[in-house]
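Field: sequence (string)
Field: structure_tokens (string)

Example rows 1 and 2, in order.
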Amino acid sequence: MTHQERTSKIRKEITESYKALKSKYPLLKYQNAIGLSIFLLCVGLSLLMGYLWYIDVVPAWSLIVVNAFLFGVLHELEHDLIHYMYFKGNKAIHNVMLFSVWILRPLTLNPWFRRTLHLHHHRFSGTLHDVEERGVTNGEKWTLKRLLFTPDLVLGNLLRVRGLFSDIKREVDNGNLKFETAHKLKLCGVFGLIPLTIVSHILLYFFGADLLLDFLNRKFDIGFVFPIVIKSILSWCNPIIYIILLPNLLRQFCLHFITSNLHYFGDVEKGNVIEQTQILTVWWTYPFQIFCFFFGWTHGIHHFVVNESFYVRHIARKKAHEIMKAHGVRFNDMGTFRRANRFNEIS
């Protein structure tokens, strides 16, 4: 079979498995109610953990770990919202949910701008102008630089923006991308960071630098500390840093590590969904998967059947994996780390 025929068969069989699951468990058909319930539960628990940490009932490490997990669930919920899976007919509730999951995950892009990049990603996954995946290090050789900037959407993208924009221009010149689309992608990539994402990253940079200076002063008495005004701002922002930013730093590193290595890049045949992603279930990825709600297990399924909720994908993943494996989708291809995420071996 051609890749189009195999893709069509995978989609049909996975869709049928979803229909069978919903027939067996009719509760799953109440998608809006389930989505809203997950949203309220995760927001409530994360704020509760923040309060318990603030009154010294739970330690900082448990706050960071639990909230990183909860924010990982909210990321999946945001992804569903970007695909209009909840309250499509009720813009008020839809946008309140979208705004709230962004505020609780401020290290990521504005979701209304991200929607443009994400829908483009589905159409052109693995290409030079797949801005969303390239923004999280996909396609780069594995070096210390890539590791350090895996979670960083500000400095990391500042370092790669020149090459990315150059590639986009070349794609336009070669007729592979419309100029209007290229212009829109650039605007969304830049303005999606303003202001919340940039401010949140800068706050973390100063927080990290302050910790480093304190350590160096204790060990080597270097005699340099931040001015009192910066110290005061960091002290005032301490609850935001611990309740929201540090859990999101952990979550975002884990998500970007998983997503950038389950997506292929650079030599993906146009329109060939089978070459776009793999399934990552290998045991050593579990510590990363926990904080992105096992994204590596299910995101490849999403590329074949886009309009289904993340929780249904998880419940039905075993059947979907059987179908995908039978039709040649890759599982646990660790060679992607050596090949800078290319689908084929580099000659």
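Row 2 begins here:
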Amino acid sequence: MTADGEIVDPFGTLGQALWICGGQWAGKSTVSRLLARRHGITVYHYDFHDARAHQDRRIARRVRDGLPIRDPDPDTVWVDPAPEQMAADTIAGFPVRFEWALDDLRALVSGRPILAEGWGLRPELVAPLLDSPRRMIVMVPTDDFREHQLRVLPRAAATTHRVSDPERARRNRIARDRLVAEDAVRTANGLGIRVLWIDGTDDAEAVADVVAEHFGPYLA
């Protein structure tokens, strides 16, 4: 983005992109992979890039801001704060991380649409890029389906760091993820962006059918 707020999009990639965001463990990545196989589109997985490819930018930003280079103590991230504060901190950090994702996307050129998926691609951040709200969909698990995912996917509630109270860290993460998802739903509703609730009734193929129909004009 330029100093006057103009969005830089040298290859027209951002203007042609499709977007899936929403809650953790709603099946966004699975559905995106299915759409890639069906329609020959390119998928950008935000979570993978955010956790790995952007680490050098994260460190550079800390240096610029005079912050410690190392990650904070895990207890101060996962154990000590209340879930509400964790959610607020996570949401507040999304805009900077979103700019890094946009840099990645700007470098992509494809004759087919590029589908970007991930929980950090927030409706309020993506909306200025859209020529139609139909270019985005927000997938969110219902409470019951979230509980199902926690039972069958241990990584859905795990933390990758050693903490003094693993069970509290687990509860905090679950609550944080729910609050961040609720924020995405409220924002999407306010912007007229479709919210797709995932309750586990349909398998991934059926959910992909719904998302493909939503994106239909751009996949044809």
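free_text_note (row 2): Residues 42 and 110 are 8 Å apart (CA to CA).
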